[in-house]
Amino acid sequence: MKTRKFRASSVPRIPSTTLFILVAAFVLSLAQDDHFFDKASVGVLPDQSVDRALDTGQVSGLVPLRTLAINPGTRRPVNVLLLVPYNNSIPWAYRKIMPALEIALQRIDADQVLPNHYLRMRYFDSKCDDSHSMNYAINAYMDKKGDAFFGPCCDYALAPVSRQATFWQVPLLTVGAEAPDFLTFKFQKFRTLTRAGPKNLQDVSDFLIMMIKSFHFTKMSIVSLVFVTTL
């Protein structure tokens, strides 16, 4: 398979303000459970249609389940591929991610952060699966509709997409990448990856051990939410 060389001039340099807004929105959205947005200005496919199509299996795997854009006018698009699972039991599911991204799009448009371009997001259900995620990423890249990737967030789905994005020189933003390897091999395998979530799970455990030793705790209890899903 022939690979397409990346041309820096083909994709506009996104200002740091835009990246900050999108990163903040992506992270803060994890606390959101309700879906809300201005339907008059954002989105082209209603939630009901997405739910119905997914529940009945009437959507082709290569058809975006949703496309978001705000008042494009004559501006050039920056195509963002959003790869998150639809399964709502997962912390970064579609319904929890989309509200904040829609707000971010409205904010970017209102502040004219990208005066000559607009962000166009195309959503696909990653299913937290490596094969589905890679399939969408490859097709988006070959169709020249993958200027940037948001997600995948599940590590097994993220790893192959992020490795390939390095060769494509496509920026990838995720709130996942919790495995230590994403940090250890950042400059060898995951050069275009930006992690907006926790550093990694190993550092969380190291922090707890240091805290226990520092305060000389001898007894402690851990309260956790059991994460169970069938994908």
Describe this structure in words.
- There is one protein chain.
- The chain has 231 residues and is α/β, with parallel strands linked by helices.
- It has a single domain, classed as Response regulator (Rossmann fold).
- Helix content is 37%, strand content 13%.
- The chain has helices spanning 16-28, 47-56, 94-110, 130-142, 155-168, 181-184, 201-215; strands at residues 66-68, 76-84, 117-125, 148-150, 172-174, 193-195.
- Helix 5 links the parallel strand 4 (148-150) and strand 5 (172-174).
- Helix 1 runs antiparallel to helix 3 (94-110) and helix 4 packs parallel to helix 5 (155-168).
- The radius of gyration is 19 Å and the shape is globular.
- Mean pLDDT is 72; it is low at 2-17 and 26-62.
Trace the largest sheet across and list its strands: 1-3-2-4-5-6
Order of helices and strands: HHEEHEHEHEHEH
Give the helix tally: 7
**The CATH topology, please?**
Rossmann fold
Summarize the SSE layout with pairings.
Layout lengths: L15 H13 L18 H10 L9 E3 L7 E9 L9 H17 L6 E9 L4 H13 L5 E3 L4 H14 L3 E3 L6 H4 L8 E3 L5 H15 L16
Parallel strand pairs: 2-3, 2-4, 4-5, 5-6
Antiparallel strand pairs: 1-3
Helix pairs in contact: 1-3, 4-5
What keyword list fits this structure?
alpha/beta; 7 helices; 13% strand; ANP_Clearance_Receptor; 231 residues; Rossmann fold; six-stranded mixed sheet
